[in-house]
Amino acid sequence: MNEKLKGARRRAALGWLVIGWLAALTPVPAQPAPRPNIIFILCDDLGYGDVGVFFQNARARVDDRAEPWMRTPNIDALAAAGVEMRQHYCPAPVCAPSRASLLLGVTQGHANVRNNQFDKALENNHTLASVLKAAGYRTAAIGKWGLQGQGTNPAAWPAFPTKRGFDYFFGYARHKDGHEHYPKEGLYDGPKEVWDGNT
To answer: Looking at the structure, do residues 184 and 117 belong to the same domain, yes or no?
Structure first.
């Protein structure tokens, strides 16, 4: 075989070897770690030991009552697959300021909703939902809101959930719609309105 041809083949083989070596050293962009799903459950008047994962399942039978009173297998399964927050603080003994503090990320004294003031608007500031939305999450609030402010509909309410960072809302927007348990005090008047969607 011709020496020139052999030399050309060696150089070509060496060239391919170098190209392969360089390709192996070229960093491949790392795939971003998948973001976790976040499900935060906040219930009015739910005690720490009232769900199975937080001691309810461990309670013993007491003379005339069998405990646990409520079984929470789905919440227990969510907790088993996720993160349990066992060191927490509830900023207020009533619902509206607790929700406001959680959403704003401040203590009750720094939130503008400090008691169960009916229809007080949640201040226009960053919320847990707006921060998550800026990080690329889709957000939804489901349940009782009660922080919408004065008005008669979502367009008029200054703090409807979709105006405070949530993409979707389903539930009672007005605080009073969640308070049928005080009929003599006149808090409940008229039909309850459940809002589904953004308007």
So the answer is: yes
First to last CA, the chain: 83
Print the domain residue range for 55. 36-88
Do 96 and 76 share a domain, yes or no?
no
**Joined tokens for residue 162:** 């979709």
| Pair 75, 53: CB distance under 8 Å | yes
Contact between 147 and 120 (Cβ < 8 Å): yes
* 197 or 114: which leads in pLDDT: 114
* pLDDT tens digits for range 161-179: 999 999 999 988 887 777 6
Q: Give strand ranges (E) for the chain.
A: 140-144, 168-172, 194-196
Residue 184 CA to residue 165 CA, distance in Å, equals 36
Say how far apart CA 87 and CA 50 lie, in whole Å: 16
H-type alpha helices, the chain? 3-25, 73-81, 95-104, 128-134
Q: What are phi and psi of 195, to 5 degrees?
A: -100, 130
Rg (CA), the chain: 28
**pTM, entire model:** 0.70
